[in-house]
Amino acid sequence: MEISRDNESITNSEVEEIDRESTNNDIQQNENHVPRVRLPGLVRKKAYIFDGYGNYYNKEWDLAEGIGQEFCWYHIELPRSNQKLTSSAQWLIDLLCPPLKLQDILSLVSNGPFCGYVDGALVFRVNSPGPPSSNFTFRLAARVTENSVITVSLGHIPRVGFSPTSQSLLSEIPSVESPYRRGRNRTAVGPVIKEHVLEFLLTMNHSEEADNPVPKTISNLVVHILDTHVDHLQDTVTKLEMELESVELDLDKGSFALKKQMLDDRRFPKMHLNLQRLLQVIAHGEQVLPRVKEKCSLRGWFACEDINALEEYIGSLRRLKENVGFIANRVTAIQAGLDSWQAEQINKKLYYISFLSIVFLPLSIITGVFGMNVGGVPWTGQDDPALKDGFQNVILICLMMLLLVLLCFLLPWAYTSLASWRRRVAMRRSWSINRKSFLRRTIGMNHRGGYLRL
User: Fold this and answer.
1) Which end of the chain has a smaller Cβ tally under 10 Å, C or N?
2) Helix (H, G, I), strand (E, B) or coil at 46
């Protein structure tokens, strides 16, 4: 196994600087096809060889296929950073060419679901087109032959590798380190784990790498890869569900600042967008896995029990899709509750403003009337006979404007009432005329002894 650096998180400036350096290099290969690793510190890679008897060994990164019952697995983990899709293709070209060709690289790195044969090898992928830095963007592609498997994933997939059984934490009897139980932790015999580690283990729906059964055939390895992908999706949904439950508990406390902060941060719209990305990845898996099952069933080296395992994974994706739909409905309901709470807060503020306007509107009318610069305003000592009609004229103009405004509001109601009255009168008149004509025809037929024509 060859792993580059342990750190996967890098800054955007470092990626842009490295991309600028990589574009300045010559992209042509020499005659010896020497591999050009432009970004040694970003991509992680693992290489295993299996003997077919339940044993595995780490090997060099030479992309060679197994001989006889032996088979090899080469796994590449692309970093979760804001890089372009072309950068990922360049990294794969540096690591896989040769022996792979450009069509093989494009089939592994492209977005969207795919399952088919490329240059004689079975290639399938479930790559979502979201931003690589998002935790809800999943990309997994595999190239399967009879003696080798090459996989490419975005970020680290839990339980995808293998490690010695002695390194498994789940096989121990640990004690939990807590700030309230520091005295008891000193007398603990087994390993001591922190509380946040226990919370992380509760979100896992699977075991650790040390508990993985070592595949004996190439079909076991393909099933293992798809199993880790489905488990990764389930872990993400479980974390999102636990986060939603904690948010619901906080909302039940009724904190004004918390609700306002959630509305300002657009917490639930972002969560709903992440759920849509998850649904897209699950939909890709529902499209690809049946085709993988169909094509693998035609291969003699693919075991029947592994075909049944693929069918179980298809059912797991369907159930996971239903669960994500339920979580999306919960998020929508919580967002609707926050929207109604925000509307109530706005209505309260408008109520206070309306109350203030009711208080100050009469006062403003009085001050406006007595503040007019016209003669004849009462109680102001303006006794000039030439100006005594000014106040009365202004009041008359105000009354006329008030009547005009009221008429504008009353005319539609009056027109509607008049139209309805005219319709009722017309209906009564037509009913009386039809009734008289009907009685006249009925009496005439009775006198003639004939039949009434309907």
Assistant:
1) C
2) strand
Question: Which of the four pLDDT bands, split at 50, 70 and 90, describes residue 349?
Answer: confident
State the DSSP H helix or E strand holding residue 62, giving kind and residue range, or none if neither. none
Tokens of 109: 């790195």
Q: Is the pLDDT of residue 42 over 90?
A: no
**Range list of H helices, 65-133:** 85-96, 102-109
Task: Report residue 164's pLDDT band, with 50, 70 and 90 as the boundaries.
Answer: low
Give the chain's end-to-end CA distance (angstroms, integer).
96
Least Cα distance to 311 among 227, 205, 208 occurs for 227
Amino acid identity of residue 352, one-letter, is Y
Which helix (H) or strand (E) segment is 341 a member of? Answer: helix 304-370
Q: What's the pLDDT score for residue 151?
A: 94
| Structural contact between residues 64 and 123, judged by C-beta atoms closer than 8 angstroms | no
Average pLDDT of the chain is: 77
Q: Is the pLDDT of residue 274 over 50?
A: yes
Residues contacting 246, CB < 8 A, separation 6+: none
Provide long-range contacts, Cβ within 8 A and 24+ apart, for 179-185: none
Q: How far is the C-alpha of 41 from the C-alpha of 223, rounded, in Å?
A: 30
* Phi then psi dihedrals of residue 319, to 5 deg: -65, -35
pLDDT at 153: 92
Q: Letter for the amino acid at 29?
A: Q
pLDDT greater at residue 259 or residue 446: 259
Rounded Cα distance, 428 and 421, in Å: 11
Count of beta carbons in the 10 Å neighbourhood of residue 385: 8
Q: DSSP assignment of 354-414, as one string?
A: HHHHHHHHHHHHHHHHHT-SSTT-TTTT---GGGTTHHHHHHHHHHHHHHHHHHHHHHHHH
